[in-house]
Each structure stands twice: as structure tokens, then as C-alpha cells.
């Protein structure tokens, strides 16, 4: 009897300990909500995008509505420039596209003295501070009480004409060096968390200035754009991304600034570029 | 007789005028020397690299020697990390690789008060000044009298172990946001001038942290690496790139800073990121 009890207790302890261990690891990762995650299928691979309704609610709402309606299925990436963006959407002037309402710019938002993020750098080229919140990269100007999502590689934003509030459904994904000069004047509403190599492989429509333009028939098309929650379970890609609010993330940032590895025989300046600081993801299904 | 003379003169004038026009345009472009240009053939596309012997003579000399010997043909990209680099070279520990001499670091060089480049920015995050010379992006610290090639997307540099002077033949190409913290401690010796989409499509060997590693059989291999001058004429890709010493290039830079296009309904800070300033190329054959 005594032995049995000890065995039971020992088993329970093992279970508790394993659970605690799992939870401790899990805290450093945040599992993505499949209702806020998009699966973009390209002819050459799959891309997963996390949406950012907490920063750009109206744009995300409209993008989800359009995605669920199949608005993007079969659309083409018609403006793809190396080191800039891959832009796509329904054929210009199509009847379908004219029915989509335009959106009011959500390029930045107001902060107060209680607003916080995981700061990584002061005195960035384009802002007073940069850092992360909910896995997204942001810039913050405390002097103006304004913050905004930054144009790092892999962010998805709505395209527009000259009018600030003219975006509707056409979007772009930054495919090269951060286009930070577009910060605050375009609405970013998500970021690629998986399959960036497939985004970057999208055929450039203007490969070389002065060369014959790429024929439209060679443009890369979107096989489909679906909410992850609407994809059959066996085809879903479920991801967890690093929790940028966890102390372990801040520790990683500080460590990265110090560059203590012996590889750095001469240390670089102790600064971090917000767009060169990875927020890693991993498949969980 | 008089009429004939006029006709001849008129023809001559037309010829002179056309020549002047061509030369004026041509000055803005610099045709690449096929003896300093490399054709990297990947299974999914062709990539052209311009070498930089004027900045990293010893590394370029060795890279050309290795390329001509077929050292890289069939090699794999065995370390490919999203937003970082695609690194490749001969199988580690191969006999062939052990015969390659190591190189002394050519990470930066000394400047004097007469040293010039086409400056684009002061107060960069990692340097006192940034700019271009011969189509390559550089940083300059006048206070130290040092300049160096910068790690922008598409630059090719030699990999090394912890020892500064341990590089030999393994190389990497920056595939995402500029890895500027590697400036001066790695030797950049060229840059991709065509086919960056194919470089960026190289299979990531570490797609997702925590996921099963990518099987070696799925690594992208280099079908061949050849000097452009050694490629049969009909397979050559001959390029011209913008002449960064031409006044038109400086004008483009100033214009880019001002962002006068109506699209910029609110102007971004008048700064330029050296790695977000394109030096365009075009096919000339």
C-alpha cells in the first residue's frame, strides 16, 4: 500500500514536472490564432501571414472579408521590383475590384506615457525608438506620442493611389531591404511568418531597367489565399512565434547587441537594426 | 555639287549628333567587364555577380582561380537562413577544400583626405558616412580614415571560422535585410547584379527553429560557377550598371531624398539607407 502510494505520487510528480517544463518553454512562444492567420498558396510554395488587427483593425477586417470571398484567388503579382516589393491584386479596373470600399489610412497610432513595447534601439535613422510588440516590429516617437509598424522585409501592406485613403484590396509584400521611407504613409496589416523564400522567388516584372518588360503571362499568380481556419485540417500549417514580451526575448536582444561570440574578433557598434532582429517561428502541427 | 555637299554635311551632322546622344546616355551606365563578372547557374535560374578587385584584390584573385578550376561546380548551399545569408562551398573536410590557401582579411581599407565617393548619407547607424564607389555601397569613417564595403542584400563575401584570416573558398550571399554588423569583420568581394530572386529562392536549410531540419538531399546546389568570359558567347548575360560617379546618379540621390512625388502626401525623414538605394543594371546583349 505504502509502495503503491509512493509510485502514484512519484508518477504525479513526474507529470507535474513535465507539465511545468512544457509551460515554461511554451511561454517563450505564442501559438498563432488560425482565425488571424492567412495561407497564401503560390505555384512554387506555401506562405503563412500573421495579421495584425490590434494595429490595423479596419484593414485586417477588409482583408479577411476579401480573402473569405475568394477575391485574391488567381490574382497576379503585377508589380514586382527587386529590393522593393511584390505587389498583387485583382486585374486593374475589374468590376469585382470596383465594388471594394476604400479604407482610411491606419499608418500610425497615438501613444501615451503608459504605452510600452520591447525596445531594441534608440536613434534609429527613421525614428526615435524601435522595438517589438506582439511579434511585430514598430517605431515610436515619444516626442510626438506616435508609434507605427515598420516596413521590414516580409510585411504586408495595402497599396494605394496618391490619396492617403484610397487603399482597397491591392497589397504588397516587402521583398528586400526594409522600405522604411514608406512608414506611416502606408498601412501595414500583417507579416510573413513562414515561406519568405517563396515570396522572394516571385517573378520580377521589372527585372532590369531598359530590358524588354516581362510578359504578363509570366507573372506569378496566387493559386489561392485562404484564412488558415478555412483550410482542411490536414493542409493547415500551424505556427508558434517567439513571444516578444517574454523576458527571454529581451535577454536575446541584449545578448545580440553585445556580440560576445568569439566569431566577433572585432566588435561591431552595439546597435541593432529593427529589421535585422529576427522574431523566429516554428511549425507546431 | 552644292546639294551633294549639304547632304553629306547633314548626314555627318546626324551621325555626330547620334554619337553624342549615345555617349551621353552611355556615360550614365558602365558596361561590366566579363573577366570580372561571374555566372552562377542554379537549378532554378541564372545569377550574375560583379567582382570587386579594386576593394578586395586577394579575395577576388582566389575566387577567380577557384571558379576557373571548377571548384564550386556541384557545391551545395548548406547554411541558408531567412533574412540572413545563403552560404555554400565544397563539402566540409573534402580533400579538395583543404588544398585551398587561407586569405588575409580585406574587411576595410585606409583613406586619406583626397579619398572620394558619392556620399548619400551622414550619421548612418553603423558608420559616419555611407555612399557609392564604382557601383558598390560603402561606409566611411573620416575620423578613423577607414572605409569598407557594406553588407547590403546581394553582396557576396567569404565565410570564415573565428580566426579573422581563415577564409578560403566557402562564401555567402546576403539574402535579406542588410547584415551590417558583419561589416569590416568579413571580406565582401562582389555583389549580385542580376537574378537576386533566384538567390533568394535558395532552399532554407533552417526554415523554422524547432522543426525537423531540412534533409541534405533537398539543399540547393550550384549547377555551375563560371567566369562570364569563359561562357560560350550565346549563353553570356552582359550587363551595364548605373555609373555611380556620374552627376545624374547624384541628382537621382538628391531627388530620392526629397520624395517630391505626389504619392508622398506626408514626407518621410530626408534620409537614405545605403542598402535601400538601388544601383540599377540592364542587359546589353
TrEMBL record, chains A, B:
Q: What is the lineage of its organism?
A: Bacteria, Pseudomonadati, Pseudomonadota, Gammaproteobacteria, Alteromonadales
Molecular function as annotated in GO: peptidyl-prolyl cis-trans isomerase activity
Where is the secretion signal located?
Answer: 1-20
Q: Which InterPro entries match?
A: Cyclophilin-like_dom_sf, Cyclophilin-type_PPIase_dom, Cyclophilin_A-like
Enzyme class at the top of the EC tree: isomerase
| Keyword Signal belongs to the record | yes
What is the top-level taxon of the source organism?
A: Bacteria
The answer to whether UniProt assigns keyword Isomerase to this entry is yes
Q: Where is the PPIase cyclophilin-type domain?
A: 43-224
| Annotated keywords | Isomerase, Rotamase, Signal
Recorded protein name is: peptidylprolyl isomerase
Supply the EC number(s).
5.2.1.8
Amino acid at each position: 500500500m505504502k509502495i503503491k502510494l509512493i509510485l502514484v505520487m512519484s508518477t504525479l510528480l513526474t507529470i507535474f514536472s513535465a507539465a511545468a517544463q512544457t509551460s515554461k518553454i511554451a511561454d517563450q512562444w505564442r501559438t498563432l490564432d488560425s482565425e488571424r492567420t492567412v495561407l497564401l498558396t503560390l505555384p512554387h510554395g506555401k506562405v503563412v501571414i500573421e495579421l495584425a488587427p490590434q494595429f490595423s483593425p479596419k484593414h485586417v477586417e477588409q482583408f479577411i472579408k476579401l480573402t473569405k470571398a475568394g477575391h485574391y484567388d488567381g490574382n497576379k503579382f503585377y508589380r514586382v521590383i527587386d529590393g522593393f516589393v511584390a505587389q498583387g491584386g485583382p486585374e486593374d479596373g475589374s468590376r469585382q475590384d470596383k465594388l471594394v470600399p476604400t479604407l482610411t489610412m491606419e499608418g500610425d497610432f497615438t501613444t501615451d506615457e503608459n504605452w510600452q513595447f520591447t525596445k531594441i534601439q534608440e536613434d534609429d535613422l527613421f525614428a526615435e525608438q524601435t522595438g517589438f510588440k506582439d511579434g511585430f516590429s514598430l517605431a515610436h516617437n515619444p516626442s510626438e506620442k506616435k508609434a507605427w509598424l515598420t516596413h521590414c522585409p516580409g510585411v504586408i501592406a495595402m497599396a494605394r493611389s496618391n490619396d492617403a485613403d484610397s487603399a482597397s484590396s491591392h497589397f504588397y509584400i516587402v521583398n528586400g531591404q526594409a522600405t522604411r521611407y514608406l512608414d506611416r504613409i502606408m498601412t501595414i496589416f500583417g507579416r510573413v511568418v513562414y515561406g519568405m523564400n517563396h515570396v522572394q522567388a516571385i517573378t520580377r516584372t521589372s527585372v532590369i531597367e531598359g530590358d524588354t518588360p516581362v510578359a504578363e503571362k509570366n507573372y506569378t499568380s496566387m493559386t489561392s489565399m485562404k484564412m488558415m481556419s478555412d483550410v482542411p485540417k490536414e493542409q493547415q500549417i500551424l505556427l508558434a512565434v517567439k513571444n516578444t514580451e517574454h523576458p527571454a526575448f529581451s535577454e536575446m536582444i541584449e545578448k545580440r547587441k553585445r556580440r560576445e561570440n568569439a566569431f566577433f574578433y572585432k566588435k561591431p557598434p552595439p546597435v541593432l537594426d529593427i529589421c535585422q532582429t529576427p522574431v523566429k517561428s516554428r511549425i507546431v502541427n
